[in-house]
Automatic annotation (TrEMBL):
<protein>
    <recommendedName>
        <fullName>UDP-N-acetylenolpyruvoylglucosamine reductase</fullName>
        <ecNumber>1.3.1.98</ecNumber>
    </recommendedName>
</protein>
<dbReference type="GO" id="GO:0008762">
    <property type="term" value="F:UDP-N-acetylmuramate dehydrogenase activity"/>
</dbReference>
<keyword id="KW-0285">Flavoprotein</keyword>
<dbReference type="InterPro" id="IPR016167">
    <property type="entry name" value="FAD-bd_PCMH_sub1"/>
</dbReference>
<feature type="domain" description="FAD-binding PCMH-type">
    <location>
        <begin position="48"/>
        <end position="214"/>
    </location>
</feature>
<dbReference type="GO" id="GO:0005829">
    <property type="term" value="C:cytosol"/>
</dbReference>
<dbReference type="InterPro" id="IPR011601">
    <property type="entry name" value="MurB_C"/>
</dbReference>
<dbReference type="Pfam" id="PF02873">
    <property type="entry name" value="MurB_C"/>
</dbReference>
<dbReference type="GO" id="GO:0008360">
    <property type="term" value="P:regulation of cell shape"/>
</dbReference>
<keyword id="KW-0961">Cell wall biogenesis/degradation</keyword>
<comment type="pathway">
    <text>Cell wall biogenesis; peptidoglycan biosynthesis.</text>
</comment>
<dbReference type="GO" id="GO:0009252">
    <property type="term" value="P:peptidoglycan biosynthetic process"/>
</dbReference>
<keyword id="KW-0133">Cell shape</keyword>
<dbReference type="GO" id="GO:0071555">
    <property type="term" value="P:cell wall organization"/>
</dbReference>
<comment type="similarity">
    <text>Belongs to the MurB family.</text>
</comment>
<dbReference type="InterPro" id="IPR036318">
    <property type="entry name" value="FAD-bd_PCMH-like_sf"/>
</dbReference>
<keyword id="KW-0274">FAD</keyword>
């Protein structure tokens, strides 16, 4: 069989719509991808749920990533970009298109600038920057996944967000097929979101961070972390010391991946902290007081209102760690109510059912709608 040239893939005219088109395989392989068929996606995600990808194209380099996505976009074939799989919830039906697995992983450090390929493991980027005597990323230690996904949801932890360190992002613009550099200001980075999240507009090819020489951390702004380090608000400590403290705190909450610990078979925090408008706030606070009494309610100023703590609301709505109990395949983490976890045999439908029950319980108790943080693929809450 003679395959047509790249860009004219006859995906839609294959007689069996479930079968892989040999011409598609040829084109993707010529572009540098390793291609397989009907690959279960559960093994590529930290929640370890999700049905098969019709086709998996593993792209080991930036050049192959660009070429593969261009080919698929030209042929209007559905694409799911996947890197560490730590911020997705994929349906049990899987993905009926091509999952592009991002494997480019070069990290370059030049003076105070760190540039990482999209597929570089994020925690390796953090560790290497600290080893090179640079401060800034230490509070973001232990976050699973890739460097390329960090701008997608403006990754943040312990008082630091990627937005404050990002210098530029190299993107493949999927509308034009062009590769270009963008300023962080163009990305709409906000609390756990950006214009790239829930969007097919671009592929992050690499990200560049501007850090501080001298080995000191950024000023510490997170009370729990500052206390562990015996620091006052705004003080710095050696970046390596802060990294160890962050990793220790995260391990205690099941927030560092550990294959042997089911509390870490999660997507991290499943819900974002809700932001309540000035208008809504009095009614929400009244409901909280009516239910749990006159307690100190964690609340923080946010650009569009007041940010409440999702974990605190979940617990006060009556969901304890480990909910709904020992026999359930999907449970709240036994260390952290904000993480929904797979105890070994959960399917995506179990995670969805648990998420709905927590979200609805909080809405009924306090009139606050929790929004999921991971990106749903082929399903909705
Ligand atoms: C135990 C645990 C702890 C966590 N703690 C934190 C935390 O403290 N703070 C935090 O912010 N997050 C946290 N997360 C969530 C997650 O680790 C981050 O969001 C991470 O950046 C996701 O990276 P990834 O490579 O796994 O992305 P994936 O899950 O592979 O993808 C996530 C989304 O980004 C898209 N995407 C991925 N790569 C690219 C790219 N190169 N270009 C365009 N789109 C892309 C995907 O299509 C998908 O929509 C945690 C997760 C776990 C499991």
């Amino acid at each position: 069989m003679r395959c047509p040239m790249s860009g004219t893939l006859p995906f839609a005219v294959v007689p069996d719509p479930r079968a892989i088109d040999p011409c598609l395989v040829d084109d993707l392989e010529r572009a540098g991808a390793q291609v397989s068929e009907a690959v279960p996606l559960a093994g590529l995600t930290t929640l370890r749920v999700g049905g098969p990808a019709r086709v998996l194209a593993e792209c080991p380099t930036t050049a192959s990533l660009i070429e593969v996505v261009r080919l698929l976009d030209t042929a209007a074939i559905p694409v799911l970009l996947l890197a560490g799989g730590s911020n997705v919830l994929i349906s049990d039906d899987g993905f009926d298109g091509v999952v592009v697995h991002i494997g480019s992983n070069t990290i370059r450090i030049d003076d105070s600038i760190v540039t990482a390929d999209a597929g570089a493991e994020w925690d390796t980027v953090v560790a290497q920057s600290i080893d090179a005597g640079l401060g800034g990323l230490e509070c973001l230690s232990g976050i699973p996944g890739s460097a390329g996904a960090t701008p997608v949801q403006n990754v943040g932890a312990y008082g630091v967000e990627i937005a404050s360190l990002l210098r530029s992002v190299e993107l493949l613009d999927r509308a034009t097929g062009e590769v270009r550099h963008t300023e962080p200001a163009e990305l709409g980075l906000a609390y756990r979101t950006s214009v790239l999240k829930h969007s097919d507009r671009a592929v992050v090819l690499s990200a560049e961070f501007e850090l501080q020489r001298g080995g000191s951390s950024a000023p510490l702004r997170y009370g729990e972390l500052a206390r562990v380090l015996g620091a006052s608000d705004g003080e710095s400590r050696p970046a390596a010391q802060v990294r160890e403290a962050v990793l220790g705190l995260r391990r205690g909450k099941g927030m560092v991946l550990d294959r042997a610990d089911n509390d870490t078979w999660s997507a991290g925090s499943f819900f974002t902290n809700p932001v309540v408008s000035g208008e809504q706030l009095p009614a929400v606070l009244a409901k909280i007081v009516a239910r749990v009494g006159d307690v100190t309610i964690p609340q923080f100023p946010a650009p569009d209102g007041t940010k409440l703590s999702a974990g605190w609301l979940i617990e006060r709505a009556g969901f304890e760690k480990g909910f709904p109990g020992i026999d359930a395949p999907a449970r709240l983490s036994t260390k952290h109510t904000l993480a929904l976890t797979n105890r070994g045999s959960a399917r995506a439908s179990d995670i969805v059912a648990l998420a709905r029950s927590v979200r609805d319980g909080v809405a009924t108790a306090f009139g606050v709608l929790l929004e999921p943080e991971p990106v749903p693929v082929g399903l909705a809450l």
